[in-house]
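In response to reviewer comment 3 from the previous cycle, which asked for concrete evidence that the modeling workflow produces usable outputs, we include below a single protein chain processed end to end. The sequence was submitted unchanged, and the resulting structure tokens are shown without manual editing.
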Amino acid sequence: MEISLQGIEEMVELAKKLKSENIEKIFHSPFVRTTQSAEILSKVLKVEMISDERFIESSYHEKTLEQFSESYQIYKKGVLEILNKHTKAIIVSHEFPMGLFLSKELGNSLDKIMENHKLTKLLRMGDCIKADFEDYSLKNTEFF
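The workflow returned the following structure tokens.
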């Protein structure tokens, strides 16, 4: 599914807000809409973008705790590798894996998240969350 005209406008506005943040790199899921969003951010911010399969949409239909845990671990590994190299980066991803990651990092157990998928609904399409990490632990989040 391609990015909508509204999505393009939102990404351009977001990029303008992010100009003063000194973003080093943009990482994105290889899916069409996230790639298109990353391209807009990259063009406006003049920052390299990198496709990363660890940030693809995973399924709401994951049925086992093991599947939830695997999705979370893959996403977290990607985030931690970015944090090892960059102090300011953007990840353009999808609602479920990012929501799962943030919900777990904010202290919810995977069991609790699995029982209540609403705990992954921390953001919606087009939202930008600024996440601050200290010693590889999430310390603060705020909508940008």
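Strands lie at 25-28, 49-51, 89-92, 129-134, 137-143. We consider this sufficient to address the reviewer's concern, and the full set will be provided in the supplementary archive.
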